[in-house]
Amino acid sequence: MTASRPAILIARKIFPEVVERLRTVFEVDAHLSDEPLDALALRARLQGKAGVFVAGTEPINAGLLAACPGLRAVCSMAVGYNNIDVPACTAAGVLASNAPGVLTETTADFGFALMMATARRIGEAERYLRAGHWKHWGFDMMAGADVHGSTLGVLGMGRIGQAIARRGVHGFGMSLIYHNRSRLPEADEQALGARWVDLPSLLREADHLVIVVPYSASSHHLIGAAELSQMKPTATLTNIARGGVVDDAALAQALARRTIAAAGLDVFEGEPAVHPDLLTLSNVVLTPHIASASLPTRRAMCDLAADNLIAALTGGVPPTALNPEVLTRA
Ligand code: 8YV
């Protein structure tokens, strides 16, 4: 007789190969849809499950954990884990994991591309051409800001922030300033030519501000009207972190009044809804939270979440646990 296998829920549509791999280890219930389960449905589907595979979208909180006492592992394919209450997981003895590292370079590529598209007005120029407005050459037609040789301001100097910084410094000869709660080790600052500055200086000095801080109560509306008013009128702002770090209503106002020149946004407060004022502005590039979306990287993210889930529920060591102490507690 074979021992019963742990039951898991895959809460989102993911690569079929990863589903098949998980089926070799677990009894799998899979919600293979891009439409997320709502809180009640998630709670119902988690009854009797030992583990769950989530993206950055499923809220895992104390209420859910209390309603699902059999749950032992919550493994996310996202690096950002503001949807998971990690202290509540720890208190409930539930292993939580995220997916750091595997998406760093892909996300940095996108962050840099979005910043460039914003500075050089690529979205606006494409819309102009497609609408048939291109009749003549004009000396200032779609003229934007230079990226090379300008000052890159990085807010949040984790793995992705550093990868963006490397692109700016080594690829585009940019000067680099950054703000982060903790400073990089001196050797890393020197290798990047990075200068730590306080937030007001970052806002004042950056030609192109790229936001990569994790979302938490302390980073909620870190950039609002007061902060935007300190930026250069020629500056751009790019947000690939999380909706809520920037006050989108204040940003829309700043863009409309040209307090800053332009913005590039991959994340939004309350996404997939987008602040209606942003949709009417020409000086903002809008993308639907796709910074990590290359196929190899999305596959690596899924594989890492599966590695964590398998290890957590079969006595192994999950490679990227957020609360590994849960496994060593008696
Ligand atoms: C994901 C992300 O696409 O990893 C993250 O934190 O924001 C993105 O890479 C998204 O969270 C998946 O739901």
Please provide a written account of the structure:
It is a single chain. This protein has 330 residues and is α/β, with parallel strands linked by helices. The chain has 2 domains: 7-100 and 295-328, Rossmann fold (3-Layer(aba) Sandwich); 104-286, 3-Layer(aba) Sandwich (Rossmann fold). It is 37% helix and 14% strand. It is built from 14 helices and 12 strands. Strands 8-7-6-9-10-11-12 form a 7-stranded parallel beta sheet, sandwiched between helices. A 5-stranded parallel beta sheet has the order 2-1-3-4-5. Strand 10 (236-239), helix 11 (248-256) and strand 11 (262-265) form a beta-alpha-beta unit. Helix 5 (104-119) packs across helix 7 (159-172). The chain is globular, with a radius of gyration of 22 Å. The two termini are 29 Å apart. The mean pLDDT is 97. Bound molecules: 2-keto-D-gluconic acid. 2-keto-D-gluconic acid binds at residues 55-57, 78-80, 103, 292.
CATH superfamily of the largest domain: NAD(P)-binding Rossmann-like Domain
Topology, number of strands: 12
Instruction: Measure the end-to-end span.
Output: 29 Å
Mean pLDDT: 97
CATH topology of the largest domain: Rossmann fold
In short:
With 330 residues, this protein is of the alpha/beta class. It contains 14 helices and twelve strands.
